[in-house]
Design a protein that fits this description.
Order of helices and strands: HHH
Largest sheet: none
Number of helices: 3
Helix content: over 70%
Shape: elongated
Distance between the termini: 40 Å
Length: 89
């Protein structure tokens, strides 16, 4: 699990670093454009699907702490790998 989390962090930094401007354009544009909002949602749902698969494998392997349920094991890395919320002045 530790190595998977390290790889997830590395991959997320590379993906978000290289694609941050595009993801942010989808997020901001999605406030007024339904197609952009759908694309942003699709990307977010896809990222959540990766986290779901990881968390399910950790659960099957007994790697989750007793106080962490499957949903929490999905939510935490999903939120951590989300693009930063920035405001522009």
């Amino acid at each position: 699990v530790q190595r998977q989390l390290e790889l997830l962090a590395e991959l997320s930094a590379r993906i978000m670093g290289a694609n941050w401007a595009m993801v942010e354009a989808l997020r901001v544009g999605g406030a007024t454009d339904r197609e952009l909002a759908a694309l942003y949602r699709q990307a977010s749902d896809g990222r959540r699907g990766w986290m779901q698969a990881l968390a399910e494998s950790w659960d099957r392997d007994g790697a989750l702490r007793p106080d962490v349920d499957l949903e929490g094991a999905v939510d935490t890395p999903w939120l951590i790998t989300a693009p930063p919320r920035r405001t522009f002045s």
